[in-house]
Structures are given as C-alpha cells and as structure tokens.
Design goal:
Rossmann fold; two-stranded parallel sheet; alpha/beta; about 210 residues; seven-stranded mixed sheet; 6 helices
Length: about 210
C-alpha cells in the first residue's frame, strides 16, 4: 500500500483527504511537464494543500493559487504560510466564467479535480481563459476522473458519477473526447494522457494556436 504522510492541518486551514493520496503522484508528473521557471496559476485551489505541497518541491517556480469561492481563500493562506515556502503569491478570487481573470499572464496552469464538480460551461471557460493567459506551448494540466469513448474506466468512477449527478445534474465525470474537443476549439493540443492512481488521469494540454 502506498505510504502517505499527512501534514498537520494549520489553524484556519481545511483538509481534503484525497490530497494525501494524490499529491505525490501529481508532483511526479509536474516535475516533468512544468517549465523550469515562471509563474504557475492554480485554478480552483480549494483547501490550498496542493500548492503548499508543490511549491517547496519546485522552488524555481512562482505559484499563484486561486479559487472561485472566497470561503477557501483563508484556508489557502493558512496552508501557504504553514508550508514555509516564499514562492507562493497571495491567493486571488478567480471564477473562470468571469472575464477578465485577475491573473492576465502565466507560464502554466494547473487545475485539479474541478471540471467534474462544476457545470460544463466552466470547462469551456477554463480553456478560453487559458488561451488568453498562456504563451505559445504553455501547459494546461488537468487531473481527475474521466470517461474514455463514453465508458467509465472503473466501476467506482461510475458510482462516483451517479452520486455527483444526483447532487447536481450539471456535474459529472466528463468524457475525455468531449474535453479534447473543447480544448481544440480554444487552440490547445492534448499532448499527453497519464494514468494515475485511483482510476484518475493527468491530462497535459499545450497551447498551439490562436483560439477560434
């Protein structure tokens, strides 16, 4: 069984249990696909635990956490402070569907576990906004569960999908082909599909052209 090293939850911080499981494997991918230097914009940072884990491990990068909910900003600040890293910017309120974004330029964008717990319009807005913010060849990294060719990759994902749609019919595990179509229309190429633990995937998109 994989070894997890949960960090103490700082005062004012919130904790997502899935972070303990997925942050290490995600970091392994990020070490390879992110630029060596520059600004990484994390969209939908949630509790802030991912940025607090990645920033000390990749100190040559500047990290900009954000979230659409002001409720999470205090948690992001708490985890950022607890990390001891000096390369994390103060979190900003960012809703992908509200233009202009408060961050107008980034060298890479990170988005973990968002598009299945939000309306499909947020996926479309994510790619449109990323096209405005990223330079040519800039990376947009997505992580989460995805269907492939209309089929779930595991029974547990189907159960998860049904639960999500029961909570909100606008939510649900997205089909990789549908995501790729939206990405292409915004000027992105799906450069890599990386199977991850717990039936998830890392997707690496690259900006290749002006959005249509």
């Amino acid at each position: 069984m994989p070894f997890f090293d949960p960090q103490p939850v700082p005062s004012g911080g919130l904790h997502a249990t899935s972070t303990d499981r997925n942050r290490g494997p995600i970091l392994d991918v990020l070490r390879r696909v992110l630029p060596r230097t520059g600004l990484v914009l994390e969209i939908a940072s949630g509790t802030g635990e991912h940025t607090a884990f990645f920033a000390p491990a990749l100190p040559a990068l500047r990290w900009q956490p954000s979230d659409a909910s002001a409720t999470y900003l205090d948690s992001i600040r708490a985890w950022s402070a607890a990390s001891g890293a000096d390369n994390i910017a103060p979190p900003v309120l960012l809703d992908v569907e509200r233009q202009p974004w408060p961050v107008t330029r980034a060298d890479a964008i990170l988005n973990i576990n968002m598009i299945h717990i939000s309306p499909w319009s947020t996926t479309e807005a994510l790619f449109r906004g990323a096209a405005r913010v990223l330079p040519p060849s800039g990376a947009l990294f997505l992580y989460g569960p995805f269907k492939r060719d209309g089929q779930h990759t595991a029974e547990s994902n189907q159960t998860f999908d049904e639960r999500l749609r029961g909570e909100d019919p606008r939510w649900g595990v997205r089909d990789l082909g549908d995501v790729e179509t939206v990405a292409s229309s915004a000027g992105f190429h799906l450069a890599e599909i990386i199977p991850m633990p717990a039936n998830n995937f890392s997707l690496v998109f690259q900006a290749v052209s002006t959005p249509r």
